[in-house]
Amino acid sequence: MEQTLKVALFGVTGYTGAELLRILARHPGVEVTSLVSSSSAGRTLGEVLPSLSLSPLSSKRLVPEPEEEFDLAFLCLPHEVSLTTVPRLLAGGKKIIDLSGAYRIKDPEAYPSFYGFTHEAPELLEKAVYGLPEIFREEIRTADLIANPGCYPTAALLALYPLLREGVELESIVIHALSGVSGAGRQTRQRFHFPEMAENCFPYALEKHRHTPEIEDVIERVSGIPMKVRFTPVVVPLVRGMLVTVYVRTGRRDLRELYLQTYANEPFVRVTESPPMTKWVSGTNLCLLYPHYDDRTATAVIVSAIDNLGKGASLQAVQNMNLMFGFEETLSIPVEGLFP
Amino acid sequence: MEQTLKVALFGVTGYTGAELLRILARHPGVEVTSLVSSSSAGRTLGEVLPSLSLSPLSSKRLVPEPEEEFDLAFLCLPHEVSLTTVPRLLAGGKKIIDLSGAYRIKDPEAYPSFYGFTHEAPELLEKAVYGLPEIFREEIRTADLIANPGCYPTAALLALYPLLREGVELESIVIHALSGVSGAGRQTRQRFHFPEMAENCFPYALEKHRHTPEIEDVIERVSGIPMKVRFTPVVVPLVRGMLVTVYVRTGRRDLRELYLQTYANEPFVRVTESPPMTKWVSGTNLCLLYPHYDDRTATAVIVSAIDNLGKGASLQAVQNMNLMFGFEETLSIPVEGLFP
Amino acid sequence: MEQTLKVALFGVTGYTGAELLRILARHPGVEVTSLVSSSSAGRTLGEVLPSLSLSPLSSKRLVPEPEEEFDLAFLCLPHEVSLTTVPRLLAGGKKIIDLSGAYRIKDPEAYPSFYGFTHEAPELLEKAVYGLPEIFREEIRTADLIANPGCYPTAALLALYPLLREGVELESIVIHALSGVSGAGRQTRQRFHFPEMAENCFPYALEKHRHTPEIEDVIERVSGIPMKVRFTPVVVPLVRGMLVTVYVRTGRRDLRELYLQTYANEPFVRVTESPPMTKWVSGTNLCLLYPHYDDRTATAVIVSAIDNLGKGASLQAVQNMNLMFGFEETLSIPVEGLFP
Amino acid sequence: MEQTLKVALFGVTGYTGAELLRILARHPGVEVTSLVSSSSAGRTLGEVLPSLSLSPLSSKRLVPEPEEEFDLAFLCLPHEVSLTTVPRLLAGGKKIIDLSGAYRIKDPEAYPSFYGFTHEAPELLEKAVYGLPEIFREEIRTADLIANPGCYPTAALLALYPLLREGVELESIVIHALSGVSGAGRQTRQRFHFPEMAENCFPYALEKHRHTPEIEDVIERVSGIPMKVRFTPVVVPLVRGMLVTVYVRTGRRDLRELYLQTYANEPFVRVTESPPMTKWVSGTNLCLLYPHYDDRTATAVIVSAIDNLGKGASLQAVQNMNLMFGFEETLSIPVEGLFP
Fold first, then answer.
1. Interface confidence (ipTM) of the complex
2. Which of A103, B333, C335, D50 lies 20 to 30 Å from A63 when distance is taken between CA atoms?
3. Which string of DSSP letters, residue by residue, matches A273-291?
């Protein structure tokens, strides 16, 4: 790509927006032309995100609608707002990476139950490409609309993919997932008030979580077999970090070789020698995987660690952008964790 | 005291209310007759505070106004609400321990500037006894209205008291105070959202804080000399805990002896052999003091550690209650810290 | 019990010892006659545990061997040391509550593989009573030797017990367990150094953990059926707290009723209306259980929350002591959580 | 600079080494030729620092002594080891940035008392340039030996410099400093064990700290006036972050203008509109300053926030390297904080 890519960012002041801007401000092929925010229009980026107050973009003013040209829009918006923004921008000839869940599931019937709205643009669900490069890299290169994956599905699907791709028979899939609190967004809530969240952990949405159909959808698309998964998310007192453990009954035992081979050429996935720590991936786009076969119970246990704002959201979005616009896939994306 | 003391608690669902109830539920001389809450009336205590769901009071229902008799009211209310509740209850013959700041400062002129309201009951300011037993024990025993001290003043005044009592000449008093986040209450705010408060610390109210006049007021009453203090509060990522460092230029050097002697008979104050840790006092009514004289700069440096919800609020309130009603001063008040 | 029970505590300076002393110092039926410590003999309790420096036991000196009479010994010792201390004390006519794992598993063959030693007193394994009162209350009352349960088994077995007791057919038992760092003891290690453990979580002992045979042993004793469990422990950045999720394939669906009924008379177990938070049980002997039946996958999902040092260790030990010596079972055992 | 700078790093496995390598691995003008470690020689970087396991340097093996050419050595070594390593490397014609304290103070008499050793190379103390670019930029450009400043002195001196440079009369300087635990290094200690450091804060070295003479030394060199400072360091439960508050009696009141003007052209110092939060600078080389004049007590209160491993250590070392070798001063140095 010769020319500079012009980028607009919708929804600047949340955590995924902040993380995107930390990277985009330094990306050599990108110019951020518009910072769109309904709540903070008129203020500068440095004012609303003091951690970016020495960024080159610091003095840029937030606007209610883009005033300058752009080729690509990142949407860090609520699901309902993304739902209607996407068709409008596509109609204007823009490419889109949508970090919400509005276009992730292929079946429009899933939305009323899991998202609470009827999908108004079902024809775009087919057009949307699920932005998990390790599975859908080629489709991503030519996509107009990327549905950037959820954090839980990213970690869980990368843990399952080597088995799914081989068509291994799987039973009793249990996905137990720990998430840092930033995954719940920037909106304050009683349970995330520091005195109540520190020294605390708890499960939530045991009955029903939006990421269940998202995971099952991709499982079926990759393996050709519909499977139900038992998914339990738990909040732990981390700011960033996600540790997903997948349990699956299977006879397939040579997991380490299978995983090493599947991900041999992936720049952001690594099969580790010992169970991974979330701290190793803080601030990066890495996914660390550790597969273990438990002979006693004939169970594959796969541990997957990501930064929920990194590979789980914004850095994966940059990876998708790099693929869509012909940049080197790894350009400007951190892989060195902030340690300690 | 032969009879059981009947107690009403106003403002149940906040942190000081929860901490009071943790203790009062087990106090052998107390019966909690009314739990008053405007926001949660109709629900049970166990519902609004699950940490108390196996307390003997768990199934007690919250009420908008007391329905049963009581002798003593604890007020865990906003300053403005305490301001008007106090005269009403006093008129009804009740005794009161007020955990707000509405009656702590003697000078009514201070309120508009520091609390944002004109004091409507200035005649009660004289009547109110400042509930710091180590200084005002005898007045507390016979008081009808206790103004329970703020957390910062408690820690700072206990650090200064041995010098003040002796009339030692003091210059350049600097009070640098670290507070856990529970000191800011249960109301959610952006800066106390877990992802922003974890791994963070920052000063606030540098220009003006309500506890400055409260501290200066007591300094003058004890020493007879008006002094200005420079007070800086800093929030640190603790749930509970307060560490106050007081700096004062003075020629008085035998601090350790002075402090040991001053507090020799105090059940809740201890002069430590090494600088105290806040963790040592978690969940207790202790104040740990470590005085150090810095010869190089002719400065007394006194470190004071308390639990901001313990000696800094609710457990000190129970200590005041014990004094007011003739119980043993230490009855039912924890001194063993939760460690680790 | 009329007379005061004389108690010796072996292994004072670790976390389970500290937690025991926090309670025993205030227990009305107990006199702590000896504090045994090999590493800190000669120092006082207040010196080695400053959080207890205002405890009535504060000035008591630690000794290398008990110098005074005692009826009951609590052992907070390494497994290997407990192994040889138990027969010696039993021979001297003492009763014992052993907080180590040295006498928890009935089968002596398990020890070389899981504990790294050959069991030298296999005849005592039969004599030892597993100190989980909700299952073995009657045996505990008359026991001379209590093997106080591990924290993970306590939380997991209380989650499974209602199903096991009914003889419900169970398949594919997965136990995914989060533990606070205090569960790993007081010995420093690189991974538990604050800068590396804060903002971190990770699984460990994926291949093999001592608590697996302990859990399986009790499962078989209760249900009569040998079952294998898949057990994964994960360290999360809590000081205290344990959240265990048990997954089991079963056709039994009326879980809530079953759990409410099973534990209707238990003073320390509560079936919650919503998934429990570890913070609700901090500093208590509570076990909170939340059973959920997932129709989509025919899986029972039971969440269990305890304080790993409370019901998971020292407070359960006090509960056992109360049973063994005829005190009221709940005497002096906290059920109100420190909140926040 | 046309050619690639060859760099050796001594002391790889500690926190300052890890932070240096996070940046140097991506610096376009640098080639890291040797990773020196006595404790971990033979292992690869990725093995000893898993957070760098996808770094370009990951497979590089640690060596006990450099085996390849280098122009510049970064020393992340204990003080005593730096003391003797520096003369040896200088004699070999290497340039050095020493992150230890061995060459920071000009007066050799200070070392026995504050560092516990007699300085063996006092002639090099004069030659060493104190690596605080905002004060000594020109000397740094031509230095052979940089004594990279301590974290506390960096934050405190940048807070005082505008006043010192103007020769403002100052009295009663108090420096109250909060530090994250990473500042104490990677060596485990009981007080930094997670269960004891979480929910804890405490002062240390109240009597005497190495950074006191370091600060006083620079104060005198800048202002020409010897002054004593009262310095109190406090550990708070942060991984990274340092918040220093400086109190000084002075008549100078126009602080904001003075500070804005002093630092107008500094790329890494910013005068903030509100008191800074440590989280804003996490992972960066920033120093945020907030000066406030307290009229009531005639006291200047200056708050200074840095990342103790960033501007307080490794990133400042890279800034010094950039200056010494003619790179752009800001090259490859992060200024965007990791948020949240």
1. 0.97
2. A103
3. SS---GGGGTTS--EEEEE
